[in-house]
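Render this sequence as a predicted structure.
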Amino acid sequence: MKTIKTIALSASIAAAGILTPSVMATDNPFFQPFDGPHSTTPFSKIENSQWEPAIDRGIELARAEVEAITAQTSAPTFENTIVALERTGSDLNRVLNVFYPLLSANADDEMMQISLRASGKLSDYSTSIILNEGLWQRVKAVYDDKSQWAGLNAEDSMLIQKTYDSFALSGATLQGTDRERFKALMSELSELTTTFGQNVLREVGNYELILDASDLEGLPESSIVAAAESAKAKGMDGKYRFGMDQPTYMAFMKYSSRADLREKMYRLYSARNTKGEYDNTSILKRIAELRLESAKLLGSKNYATQNLKRTMAGTPEAVYDLLDRLRDAYTPAARAEMAELTEFASKTEGHAVELKPWDYSYYSNKLKAAKYSFDEEALRPYFELNNTIKGVFGLATKLYGLQFTENPAIEVYHPDVKAFDVTDETGAFVGVIYTDFFPRESKRPGAWMTGFKDQYIDNDGTNSRPQVSIVMNFTKPTADKPSLLTPYEVETFLHEFGHALHGLLADTKYASMSGTAVYRDFVELPSQFNENYLTEKEFLDGFARHYETGAPIPQELVDRLIASSQYGAAYACLRQLAFGYLDMAFHTIEAPIDDVTAFERAATASVQLFAPVDGTATAPQFSHIFSGGYAAGYYSYKWAEVLDADAFAHFKKHGIFDRATADSFRKNVLTRGGTEDPAVLYRRFRGQDPTIDALLMRDGIKKAPEHKLPEQAKD
């Protein structure tokens, strides 16, 4: 739980002898307030040997704070139980809010080992809170007493609901043998989901395609060099080794001119984890059964019904309604795309071609190039990193009046990192943002936003402002060339910056509902909303200039970018819907599954454009839902797309930089975090519920109406 701690309580706990001598070492930077600007983290003072004592101390303090709540003789109230519980654990949170961001962005082997040792302690602590019967009874007493809710605002009411749900949805309502059974189910699920994910990783390295130089027709030089190096590392000089990692697979399927080798690659890749040592078939069946049984113990007919209670969708019926409407809207366009692609492939080969799954990427890439002559590399010179930073930060200036000023006095955790003070139009301090753009060995790949400190309002009414971080892996500048980004990388920057704004502009009382602490199918709205600006010439003209000539990005290149972004949109949508249908099918079962392959094919039949290929299956490799936290939640990607397209259409109607519209988006979406039902927040901004129409228009499935901006008042 996100919390605020009082120093007096920590002092009294220490004085009472609750903390061990090792935990009370005074040289640990986490044992006193941070003294950097805005109380930022003193990274240089932190040594690896200090992490575990700080975590141990945080756990002990948090346990003592919880014990103080349950030891009260006074009747449970909103303040002495719900708010008090919200305020526990701030010392622990302060450590973890630094440790985990660094674990992803600047870790070493020792930190990885520390994380493994700490995970068990943290799991035990979390379980001890949920299964603390005295604490649960106090929470339940407040929840059941409707007089306690009288006079509370929406945020306070949501805190009661969220606190109650965190216990109830984790098995606190169960008693006796049911509680013990639930604990056993959770333990087995934890083990099986971990095994599933490990099997997927191991199988990737287990499959390979070894080729000769004569087999490389069509492949780009970068793929050939990488394959040669991979083969050499395996002692196969003169050969070319193509593994089953996703980047290698995608490049091979996109560029290889050999249909027979594309088929071989497809069959290998799509048969992973279906047999042999790392077969996940029986594991995923058992995972689905365990989730079903746990849901029934909690009173739901299936896992999806249980898991969707704290989402915008709310029910499986609402999820299926969205999936079905998108399927019906995109299927005609997808079939038209396939007909065009088949005709193109036949003309290219000089004979009739029946497209197979392993042909799609190859011919699609060629048709896209023929139609649009679009090359992402041609846009790189217009997206020099420093100018792009100014442009992306400038978007927040135009929309929300924010200013970003680099503050060298704020300590950073790596020389590549920069820290900025963020202020509003009045000069008031909003928060701190760290930027970390370049790859290094101590940093995992990908891109993400995180926070070193959440926003909240302290006991004395002080609005404690957030410290957020955006982390990416862009090409570093060289001696003769600056860092130049592709459009995809600029889109990634805009995406993570949208998350950062959600954190920076937070204005809530409680840390547990601040910023991005919202429903999973709502959290991507601010980030995906920002992506829409990538294709807006009015936005690009503010910063996208050739790094050598200073010329603005040509409209022709922007038009090609827009057109190419719509190409294949229907096929891509149906592919995502297939994953969504498959996820929902596994998590709406009400009896165990017999044949996984037959079950999968039935679940996805309505969105398949190719006939099934024997020996292949998606489910045994589907880490998102069987080991990655997206069980009964994969639909949320499309749910968020509907929201962001609908929201941006509202901006387009009034002007993409219209301050009144931006103020409404800020007030009703960005500042409120998880304090209210997101459907209510969105309606308050938009004036209506979202529809799929804007997404259909953005993808070129439906023709967009011409919006005319209001005429400016004449002098």
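Summary. The chain is about 50% helix and 5% strand. Residues 1-23, 706-715 have pLDDT under 50 and may be disordered.
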